[in-house]
Design a protein that fits this description.
The complex is a heterodimer.
Chain A (H helix, E strand, L loop, with lengths): L16 H4 L2 E2 L7 E2 L16 H8 L2 H14 L5 H24 L3 H8 L1 H15 L5 H12 L3 H18 L3 H27 L2 H10 L16 H9 L7 H11 L35 H43 L1 H9 L2 H15 L2 H37 L8 H22 L9 H26 L8 H25 L5
Antiparallel strand pairs in A: 1-2
Chain B lengths: L2 H11 L1 H20 L4 H27 L8 H28 L8 H34 L4 H9 L1 H24 L1
Helix pairs in contact in B: 2-3, 2-5, 3-4, 4-5, 5-6
The chains are: A mainly alpha, B mainly alpha.
Chain lengths: ~500, ~180
C-alpha cells in the first residue's frame, strides 16, 4: 500500500461539463475550464514533490562552494546564504501557487504572458543543461572510493538512467520513492559524520554567521572573488531553472489542479499514456468550499517548503561547512587547496584530513556522500530537463502533439544522454571553454527572469482571491533585483560573469 | 493477549526503526572493513554507533505503536532525538575510546559535546522520520493481519490510502473525458 505518495481525489464532473462549462480567461492563450479542486492531503506525511527540489538543490553549492567561502572569508559571509535559501523557499511557494491553481507549468504561464519569454527558457535550458559536467563531482568521488575512472562510471550511469526511465510505467512515483530514500540516507549520514568530526565552536560560528547581515569583506570586492560570491548566492538551494521544473513535478504528482492532468509514463508504456488536455484548469474561487480546499493545499506546500526544502538545505550546508572547518583545522594544507579553487584536490584533501583525524571510515564516508549528492542531482536533472523540454515542445512546437508527452520526454532524455556520452568521450564536459562564461551568465539570468515571470503570472493570470499579497510580491521583486543586480554589477564592474 | 505476544508484536512493529539505526551502524562498520581496518575495530565502531541508535529508534517506534506520538509528524520526533541522538554518540565516543586506548572514557567537555550533537539531532530527526516512513510503508502492510500496532498506524494513513484509491479510479474515468476535451 502506498501511503505517502501525495494523491488526492479527483472529483466527479458533470457529464455535460465540456459543453456548458465556465472558463477562466488567463492571458493570450486558450481559457482554462473551471473544474473542482481536489481535497488537499493532510500535511502529516513527510514526502512530497519537494523531494526533487531538495535532490537538485543540495549540490555543489552546499557541499563545496559555501564551505569554501567560509574558509576564505570567515563564517560571517553565510548571511548571504541565509538570504539566498530563504528567498528560494518563497520562490518555491510562489511557483507552487501557479502550478497548483492551474495544473500548468510555469513555462506555460510564461507563454500566456508573452511567448518569447517561454522560448528564452526553452533555449536557455538546452544551452545550460546539455553538458554533462555536473556528473563529474559525483563520479569523481566514486572513482576515489572504487578506483573506476570517472568517465567510465559517468557513461554507465548515463545509460542506466536512460534504460531505467524508459522501463518505468509511471516515472514520477518511482523517482519520488528512490530520491526519498537516497536523501533520507544522505541526511542521516551527514548528521552522523558532522556529529562525529565537528565541534560546538564550529557550529556556533557557522550559525552565528547566518545573522551577520551586511558583512561584506573588502577582499571580496575584486574580479577574482566577487564573481565567486555571486555564483555561490545563485547556487544557494536550487539554481538555474530547477525551480521552474518543480512546477512540473507538482503537476505530475497531482497537486492541486494538477490532479486533472495525466502523468508522464516511461517509453515502454508510453502508448498507454492518456491524452494531455491542451491547457490547464482553474477552480471556482468564488465558492467558499473550494477556497477552504485551496487553503489546505497552501498549508501542505508550506510544510514542504519550510521543513523539507529550507530545513534540509540548511542542515546539509551547515554539516558540510562544519566538515570543511574541521578538516582545515586538522590540516592547514586543506584550507590552501580549498581557497585555491581546485575542487577535486580540495575534496580529496578534506577526505584525507578526516581519515587522519578520525579514521579512514570518515574519509571514505565523505566521498560516499559526495557521490550520493551527485547521483541525486543527476537523476533529478535528467528527469526534470526532459520533463521541461517535453512540456514546452508538446504545447508550443507546431506538429509536436502527434507524439505523446511521454514520447517527447523519452526523446529529450535519450538526446541529452547520447550527447552527454559523446561529450564525455570526446569533448569538454562543462561545455566549450569559450562559452563557459555565457552559460554561467544565462543560468543566473534565468533566475532573475523567473522572478519577474512569477510576478507577472501570479498577479495577472490568477483570480484576485488567490493572488499573492504585497509582502510576497515585494520578496519576489527583491529576488529579481538580487539575482539580476548582482549579475550585472559583476559584469559591468569587473567585466566577468559569475564564477 | 499475553505479555509475550504483545512484546513480540511491538518488536515486529519496530523493524523499520531498528533498520535505520542498523543502517547507520552498518555504514560505519562496513566502510571500516572496506578501507582495510581490522575486523574487530570495524565491528566495534559499527556496534558502538548502531546499537544505541537502534535502541532509541525502537523506543520511538514503541511510542508510535502505543499512540503516544502521531505518525509522520516532525515535532515529536525532533524532541525525541534531541535527547536520543547526543546520547547515542556519547556511547559511541566511549566505545571508540575503549577500542583505541583499552579503557572506556568520556569525551572532554561532555556538556559541550552533548549540546553540539543535540543541535545536529534536528537533521537526524528529519532523516530518521523520512526513512522510517519509507521503510514502514512497505513493512507494516505486510504484518497488518497479525499485528495490532501495525494495523493502528496504517489506519492513521487511511485517509491518504483511500484518496489514492479514489484517484486511481478517477484517472480511469478521466482518460476518456480528457480525450474528449483535449
Amino acid at each position: 500500500m502506498d501511503v505517502t505518495s501525495k494523491t488526492s481525489e479527483v472529483p466527479e464532473e458533470p457529464a455535460a461539463a465540456a459543453v456548458t462549462e465556465k472558463v477562466w480567461k488567463a492571458g493570450r492563450l486558450e481559457p482554462m475550464p473551471i473544474r473542482k479542486l481536489p481535497d488537499a492531503p493532510p500535511s502529516m506525511h513527510i514526502l512530497g514533490p519537494t523531494v526533487f527540489l531538495v535532490a537538485l538543490g543540495v549540490g555543489i553549492g552546499e557541499s563545496y562552494m559555501w564551505p569554501r567561502l567560509v574558509l576564505v572569508f570567515g563564517p560571517d559571509i553565510r548571511w548571504l546564504f541565509m538570504i539566498g535559501v530563504t528567498l528560494q523557499a518563497f520562490i518555491l511557494l510562489e511557483m507552487a501557487r501557479y502550478a497548483m491553481a492551474t495544473g500548468e507549468s510555469i513555462f506555460f504561464g510564461a507563454a500566456r504572458i508573452f511567448k518569447p519569454l517561454m522560448w528564452f527558457f526553452y533555449a536557455a535550458a538546452i544551452l545550460i543543461y546539455m553538458w554533462p559536467g555536473h556528473l563529474s563531482a559525483g563520479a569523481g568521488a566514486f572513482e576515489e572510493i572504487t578506483g573506476i575512472p570517472w568517465q567510465v562510471s559517468a557513461c554507465v550511469a548515463l545509460v542506466l538512467v536512460g534504460v531505467l526511465f524508459s522501463m518505468l510505467s509511471v516515472i514520477y512515483n518511482f523517482l519520488e520513492k528512490l530520491l526519498g530514500l537516497l536523501i533520507g540516507l544522505l541526511v542521516v549520514g551527514t548528521s552522523v559524520i558532522a556529529a562525529i568530526v565537528g565541534s560546538w565552536d564550529d557550529v556556533a560560528k557557522t550559525l552565528g554567521g547566518m545573522f551577520a547581515v551586511g558583512y561584506f569583506p573588502h577582499d571580496a570586492m575584486n574580479s577574482t572573488w566577487f564573481p565567486v560570491v555571486v555564483g555561490a548566492c545563485a547556487f544557494a538551494g536550487p539554481s538555474g531553472m530547477q525551480q521552474m521544473w518543480y512546477t512540473l513535478q507538482l503537476r505530475d504528482s497531482g497537486a492541486g489542479m494538477g490532479a486533472h492532468i495525466p502523468k508522464i509514463r516511461g517509453l515502454r508504456t508510453a502508448g498507454e499514456a492518456e491524452s494531455m488536455p491542451s491547457r490547464g484548469f482553474m477552480f471556482d474561487t468564488e465558492d467558499p468550499a473550494e477556497m477552504a480546499k485551496w487553503k489546505g493545499w497552501r498549508k501542505w506546500v508550506t510544510f514542504d517548503a519550510i521543513l523539507l526544502f529550507w530545513g534540509i538545505t540548511m542542515l546539509v550546508t551547515i554539516s558540510f561547512t562544519v566538515l570543511a572547518m574541521a578538516a582545515a583545522r586538522e590540516n592547514p594544507n586543506v584550507a590552501e587547496l580549498i581557497q585555491g579553487g581546485d575542487r577535486e584536490a580540495a575534496l580529496k584533501a578534506m577526505s584525507d584530513a578526516f581519515a587522519a583525524a578520525g579514521s579512514p571510515i570518515l574519509g571514505t564516508l565523505f566521498f560516499a556522500f559526495i557521490a550520493l549528492i551527485g547521483l541525486n542531482a543527476t537523476l533529478g536533472l535528467f528527469d526534470s530537463f526532459s520533463r521541461g523540454q517535453a512540456d514546452m515542445t508538446y504545447y508550443f512546437v507546431p506538429g509536436a502533439k502527434r507524439f505523446s508527452m511521454s514520447r517527447l520526454y523519452a526523446g529529450f532524455l535519450w538526446g541529452v544522454i547520447l550527447f552527454g556520452i559523446l561529450i564525455l568521450l570526446f569533448g569538454p564536459a562543462d561545455g566549450p571553454a569559450g562559452i563557459l562564461d555565457t552559460l554561467a551568465f544565462l543560468s543566473t539570468f534565468a533566475m532573475g527572469a523567473y522572478c519577474i515571470v512569477l510576478l507577472l503570472t501570479n498577479n495577472m493570470l490568477l483570480p484576485k482571491k488567490i493572488r499573492p499579497g504585497p509582502v510576497r510580491n515585494v520578496i519576489i521583486g527583491f529576488g529579481a533585483v538580487f539575482y539580476l543586480g548582482m549579475l550585472f554589477y559583476c559584469l559591468f564592474r569587473f567585466g566577468v560573469a559569475v564564477g | 493477549m499475553t505479555q509475550t505476544a504483545d512484546v513480540k508484536q511491538l518488536a515486529e512493529f519496530s523493524v523499520p526503526a531498528l533498520s535505520v539505526g542498523a543502517a547507520a551502524g552498518l555504514i560505519a562498520g562496513g566502510l571500516a572493513a572496506f578501507v582495510g581496518q581490522p575486523a574487530g575495530w570495524a565491528v566495534v565502531t559499527g556496534l558502538g554507533l548502531g546499537v544505541p541508535l537502534m535502541l532509541f529508534g525502537a523506543g520511538y517506534a514503541v511510542l508510535l505503536a502505543l499512540g503516544k506520538v502521531p505518525a509522520g509528524v516532525f515535532a515529536p520526533a525532533a524532541v525525541y532525538w534531541v535527547i536520543g541522538f547526543p546520547l547515542s554518540l556519547f556511547v559511541h565516543a566511549i566505545v571508540t575510546e575503549w577500542a583505541v586506548t583499552g579503557t572506556p572514557g568520556v569525551p572532554p567537555d561532555p556538556w559541550k559535546f552533548l549540546a553540539f550533537r543535540a543541535l545536529i539531532s534536528m537533521g537526524f530527526a528529519i532523516g530518521f522520520l523520512w526513512m522510517h516512513e519509507q521503510l514502514g510503508r512497505h513493512w507494516w502492510p505486510r504484518i497488518l493481519d497479525r499485528n495490532q500496532y501495525a494495523r493502528r498506524v496504517v489506519e492513521q494513513y487511511v485517509h491518504l490510502a483511500a484518496a489514492l484509491e479514489a484517484r486511481k479510479a478517477a484517472t480511469g474515468r478521466g482518460r476518456v473525458r480528457n480525450k474528449r476535451t483535449a
